[in-house]
Amino acid sequence: MLTALLVMLGLALLLGIVLGYSALRFKVEGDPLVDKIDAILPQTQCGQCGYPGCKPYATAIAQGAADINQCPPGGETGMRALADLLGVEPKPLNAEHGLPKPKSVAVIDETTCIGCTLCIQACPVDAILGAAKHMHTIIASECTGCELCLAPCPVDCITMEPVGESVANWKWRYPVYPLKQTA
Amino acid sequence: MISRLFKFNGGVHPPQHKLASANSPIASVPMPQRLVLPLRQHVGNVSKLQVAVGDRVLKGELLAAADGMISAAVHAPTSGTISAIDEQLIPHASGLPDLCITLEADGEDRWIDHAPVDYRQLPKAEVIARLRDAGVVGLGGAAFPSHVKLREDGRHPVATLILNGAECEPYITCDDRLMRDRAEEIVRGLEIMQYLLGTARCMIGIEDNKPEAAAAMRAACANSAIPIEVVEVPTLYPGGGAKQLIKVLTGLEVPSGRLPTEIGVQCFNVATAYTVHRFVNFGEPVISRVVTVTGNVAHPGNFEVPLGMAIEDLVQVAGGAGDDTNGFIMGGPMMGFSLPSIRVPVVKATNCIIASAPRMFPPQPPALPCIRCTRCADACPVNLQPQELYWFAKSQNLDKARSYNIFDCIECGCCNYVCPSHIPLVQYYRFAKSEIIAQDKAKQAANLARERNEFRLARIEREKQERAAKHAQRAAGAKAESSEADEAKKAAIAAAMERAKAQKAEVAPKNTEDLPAAAQAEVAAIEARRAEAAAAKPPTDSLKQEKQENG
Question: How many contacts does A have with B, using Cβ atoms within 8 A?
């Protein structure tokens, strides 16, 4: 009887030590859920969700402070992926935060640009190149199309140009064919 | 030596239709007035422009250079003037325009100086770099830059070199004709490739529906310094696919997602070997290729066509298309695509042009629902489950499609061919593949944006801290050193004033000595006037005061 008790006690102690040690040894830094949500978000850093970037929005979702339907660039697909991850019902995108738009990039009219650097300071991904009193230009391959540079420009020389279809980014269409032969 | 042959799964036997174009030798075509050369003729990076509008170029001159490792150069197919560099329609399934160079021929057809490559004397890396600059790409249809495959990467020694002369698709006969008419040259090219790769075994695989080509190649190989096996493989579509031919000849299967190099095999098209020979031994870059023109045309045949010639003109050379022609296909009927327009140029990947008519390719009966008969799985040469892939692609369940190895699909069309419900299966796979590729690209872009955003936030944070640290330092320093610093500063100011006074005293007009008497008198007079003026002027301090008072 006593032996059994001691054995059980010993086992409990041993397992407790092992568990305690592994909790310290294999501690997960940061919140893995935030990273998982952040991986789904499109990283435009546009702030349309009401948070100052994708990571803060991901953190808010993880804490339950924000809804999953506030990200227009992520669109329907992004919202569904979030719903899948979090195990909640998908819901239509909240129009208050804007509507999904085709992907576009900012273009600076270089003849109008006065070199004020305001757009450079606004760009969340450092995709604008230039210096004070020198013409600025946008690195198109880095631009996420967040539109954050439009508002600060004092001379309105930035426009959003939709990314057109080219041979390089062309996709095969979903096959559509008539089920019934029409005359 | 007769080697044992192996089999791949599935395959189909579509009607051949090869006789129409295979019976006459390769014909040349008159040089067209205008050539249009797209910069995107190969797999990989788009070539970099080297010419401007108005430039005069010679035949074989570089127009656009290879950009990076996986890229190839573009050359002028004849001498003339660059008349435009703009977006024009190219032979691409999208039907979208792309950047092209337009060359107006001057009719002289004057060559650059030929620079043959003495490949046995030069380092191999140098020969391979020159092949890249000669624009040598796989001419079987995929147009993958060949120099990449000819590199010795050190990790995977290539034991077997295979030349692909199988040409399994119906209608196409350009490789057949090339092997019959230019067998010796193909073997010379093979010898160069064998030297570059250092392979022990060389094989040429030819489908047994081309006995003349096999005989010609055998005769040419008999004269070669290296042992080459010419093997006739059973005619079975898609036996000309690189992985299928490797399986048939060697029994080795290329694992999913790997390259043939990794199992010690390298495979090239016979036409590629021919262009390697033309460049290395004669210094001619890739400026033309053999194209089969067949189907609903008056005189089907094979033509040596300068790259950039309009397909419309090429069809005219073949006697023009019949009245009931309802479209043109580039490539074969199984894997080719309908040309968006006939006014597109011949490119390096153009192996065949088929003028199609309703009697040749009757419209498909309407697609019926999939009955899961799995005849597609029996026909699939890469052992996929086409019926499953169809469901996943149709429901846009892309992750599932990927996990069922949709990227191993070679889009050969065997599943389409056997489907009793006439479902355009390959179209679904193409859709799913390009959708997955686009998603992956978007993911990459998002990762890049995240990285840049994190870097920016870290930078702003760092700058803020640096500024705060500087302020703190300055504040602390100012307090502690105020009295000491004041003393030191005062001393420094005093010393500076002393120095300034001394300098002022030293400064004297340097050009007043050794002057003639008249000049000295003039100087003295001016000095006197200056002194007078200084005495008359009120002191500056009072002047300032006056100004302030006035407002």
Answer: 82
